[in-house]
Specification:
Strand content: 5-15%
CATH architecture of the largest domain: 3-Layer(aba) Sandwich
CATH class of the largest domain: Alpha Beta
Shape: globular
Number of strands: 12
Helix content: 40-55%
CATH superfamily of the largest domain: Type I PLP-dependent aspartate aminotransferase-like (Major domain)
Largest sheet: 7 strands, mixed
């Protein structure tokens, strides 16, 4: 018996750089002390009042099938939040609630890509992007960004790859780089999408984690609301990663079809989770700022440590919970550096190569441990990079 080509080819062969992460987890399981600066999991849990609301809703009976598009309350709450933040008129019928941002990404690409179509995404990229595009039967094609541009996308690079493409997936604030796309970058992307008739899928799950500048949703740009699908989630803004509650924002016609898709796939999100999400969003920006505050603080700690040396370079980190560090002066690849750092100092970081070709020679550091340990670990990383750099220069 054969499995489908689609399921067998979600990911491509060869090393994807995630071996460092798996080795770190294996070492921890064996009882070794490993400092993990790998994945974007908050070091604080979901707030007690959100959990209390979730429990109360479940206790009161909201444990059966919930409305497939999402409860009216949560759809209205998300719509109001999006309209307030972006200025774009947004109603319940522009919102589909999904089991997390990942399901929203899959739904959005299902909506706009036919089998064999090309879906574009930017490199470096969040690990699931190409597999999500392949999962809907489309051809995933990377568009390179460049370290010398601080990984801001170039419109001409997108245009170069746009023949045969139907969609472009972007992510700002960006995982893995921490870059926030400038209004000029987003304006150029929007013009390219209009000229090349591309759907724009905008992953904005880090929109509450902006340290410099402001977040601009491309849906708010002229003539873009009808060709943009926005991905949102409770995971990063409210430390609700395990609750799996996200959404797609888009034109009403698209959402109608996505509701039909959800009826045949996920069949909605548990009602008690949606009630907790509605409660959390209704609390305003205060709780969101509280969740984001440790990452803002640790970014400042990192800035002070990195300023005291000249081997490890920092990609401008204007948002999200990550730092992308340039370690090319050590003479090692990102994967080589990460493996050696794990072996010698029991500190686990993600190789830039885990996120595509464009970030080769970099490592991604998640700012997800307490301030003191984070600062100590980053100092060890920088000292180690300095040793390697001096050794490389002497040889």
């Amino acid at each position: 018996m054969k499995l489908s080509h689609r399921i067998m080819h979600l990911t491509e062969g060869g090393s994807d750089g995630w071996g460092v992460f798996y080795r770190a987890r294996e070492l921890k399981a064996q009882g070794h002390a490993v400092t993990e600066l790998t994945i974007g999991e908050h070091d604080v849990g979901t707030a007690p009042d959100i959990l209390a609301e979730m429990y109360a809703s479940a206790r009161d009976g909201h444990t059966g099938y919930a409305s497939v598009p999402g409860t009216d309350l949560l759809r209205d709450t998300v719509a109001a939040r999006v309209q307030t933040r972006t200025g774009v008129p947004t109603k319940r019928h522009n919102v589909l609630i999904t089991p997390g941002g990942q399901a929203a990404l899959f739904a959005a690409h299902t909506a706009v890509c036919n089998p064999g179509d090309t879906g574009l995404y930017l490199d470096p990229y969040y690990a699931t992007y190409p597999g999500t595009i392949r999962g809907v039967g489309a051809v995933a094609k990377a568009v390179q960004t460049h370290a010398q541009d601080a990984f801001q996308p170039r419109a001409e690079e997108i245009d170069k790859h746009a023949d045969g493409a139907v969609s472009l997936l972007i992510n700002t604030p960006n995982n893995p780089t921490g870059v926030v796309y400038t209004p000029e970058t987003l304006g150029a992307i929007a013009e390219t999408c209009k000229r090349r008739d591309l759907w724009l899928i905008s992953d904005e799950v880090y929109d509450t984690q902006v340290w410099e500048g402001t977040h601009l949703s491309p849906r708010a740009l002229p003539d873009m609301a009808d060709r943009t699908l926005v991905i949102g989630s409770m995971s990063k803004s409210h430390a609700m990663t395990g609750s799996r509650c996200g959404w797609v924002i888009g034109p009403e016609e698209v959402i109608d079809h996505l509701i039909n898709l959800a009826t045949h796939t996920t069949y909605g999100v548990p009602g008690f989770i949606q009630d907790a999400a509605s409660f959390a969003l209704s609390a305003g920006q205060g709780p969101e700022e509280e969740v984001a505050a440790p990452f803002r603080r640790r970014r400042e700690i990192a800035g002070r440590i990195l300023a005291r040396q000249n081997v490890v370079g920092l990609v401008p980190a204007h948002g999200a919970m990550y730092l992308m560090l340039d370690i090319r002066a050590t003479g090692l690849s990102g994967e080589g550096f990460a493996n050696t750092l794990l072996d010698t100092h029991a500190i686990a970081v993600m190789p830039g190569e885990s996120f595509g070709k464009a970030a080769a020679g970099h490592v991604r550091v998640a700012m997800t441990i307490d301030d003191e340990k984070f600062g100590d670990s980053l100092q060890v990383l920088c000292d180690f990079a300095g040793e390697l750099s001096r050794s490389a220069a002497a040889s």
